[in-house]
């Protein structure tokens, strides 16, 4: 469906490599308006290698472009296409290798929020590729400088993986990253652990409140005069409200009537 794009991008890569510095505005506009939207395509794998080369050439020539480039990649990040996620993670690593500290600060919160979601991915290749970012010394140095902001973002994903991820390789990589953070700043790690446990306790309390509310609703429903007539139609997955409403419709009742009009007359 996209024949020829890879070849065109390969030619463009050679042209971009020869751009003089500083980059002209029309060249930056070409990056933002023509190249980055190519990440939208589902079959981006057909030309991603050439596209990534073009994008990284721009970032290498002007590191300030790393921020809009990463923002665009995050905007086009796939939700259900794991092979595309792996490609995006590889491109993100290449860009992070060239990013300057000020640009990293501006994008680290949304970037690591997405990386945390990838770490928790049930697809082992996505989780594995995300954890491989901690094998890059320059990226680890950036994370170390801003660990107080990065660790709280990824802590939940690391904790979940270390406890329950099905893939042993991902589990081992997760433990390595956890160990790295523990050695980097033990006090911060303990603070994040305590905050995570408190958040889990609050979530458990909210779940119990919701269950209590549903039990109260079910008790009210069972007290309804219609309940004995629709009880036989209920299953484990059926909704009580829908079943009762279906019974009302079968009997020609409105939503505001408690019993058929002929029964009321009697």
Key phrases:
single chain; 266 residues; mainly alpha; extended
Describe, in plain words, how this protein is organized in 3D.
With 266 residues, the chain is mostly helical. It has 14 helices and no strands. The longest helix has 37 residues, at 186-222. The chain is extended, with a radius of gyration of 27 Å. The model is unreliable at 255-266 (pLDDT under 50).
Task: Give the arrangement of secondary structure elements.
Elements (H helix, E strand, L loop, with lengths): L4 H13 L7 H11 L12 H14 L4 H10 L6 H15 L4 H19 L4 H8 L5 H9 L1 H18 L3 H17 L1 H37 L4 H4 L9 H11 L10 H5 L1
Helix pairs in contact: 1-3, 3-5, 4-6, 5-7, 6-7, 6-9, 7-10, 8-9, 9-10, 9-11, 10-11
Count of DSSP H/I helices? 14
* Spatial separation of the terminal alpha carbons: 71 Å
Oligomer type: single chain
Biggest β-sheet: count, sense, barrel? Answer: none
**Rg:** 27 Å
Instruction: State which percent range the strand residues make up.
Output: under 5%
Poorly predicted regions are 255-266
What is the residue-mean pLDDT, rounded to a whole number? 87
What is the 3D form? Answer: extended
How helix-rich are the residues, as a percent range?
over 70%
- The run of helices and strands is HHHHHHHHHHHHHH
Count the beta strands. Answer: 0
Category from helices, strands and their pairing: mainly alpha
